[in-house]
Amino acid sequence: MSTPTDAQLREQAQFLGDRLRAARDSLVTAESCTGGWIAKCLTDIAGSSDWFDCGMVVYSYEAKQALLGVHPQTLEEHGAVSRETAIEMVSGALVHSGATVAVAVTGIAGPGGGGPGKPVGTVWIAWKRRGGYARAQLFHFDGDREAVRRQTVGQALLGIGELLP
Questions:
Q1: N or C: less crowded end of the chain, CB within 10 Å?
Q2: What does the alpha-carbon distance between residue 27 and residue 24 come to, in Å, rounded to a whole number?
Q3: Within a 13 Å sphere around the CA of 95, how many CA atoms are in the beta-carbon half?
Q4: What is the pLDDT of residues 111-129, one digit of tens each?
Q5: Residue 1 bridge partners (DSSP)
Q6: CA triplet 45, 160, 27: central angle to 5 degrees?
Q7: Beta strands of the chain (E only): which ranges?
Q8: What is the pLDDT of residue 148?
Q9: For the chain, what percentages of helix, strand and coil (3-state, to nearest 5) are there?
């Protein structure tokens, strides 16, 4: 999987913004390993206030619980980097916002933090449309911290597009 450039991410964000505006949808982001990078890409687009509702950066277990309603039991049993947590994050983002579409990311960008079963580059991304079912996908990205985060942003944006008419 190639690492997208700033220009490619901007192009993706512009395309999504146009589609969100046309569909009269709004977006919320819930980000862990990307630290707000998805929201930054989207809000770099002029007029994004027409379709971007809000973004939450949630690194700690406590923030995931308080801001997104992730259950403590989910975190204890599956960890922050899991399908279960990503789905609770994306669902909670919709509950705690006025948006109609959500994306959530949680992963291990490195250089540390990885281990057996969850090496550096392991990322879960979840997407959901209000009233629909969440979809989550596991990725294993290569490269350094920036490359892993950049690839996560690119895949997150692609998945948002799949939710739109």
A1: C
A2: 10
A3: 13
A4: 999 999 999 999 999 999 9
A5: none
A6: 60
A7: 27-31, 52-57, 101-107, 122-129, 135-140
A8: 98
A9: 45, 20, 35
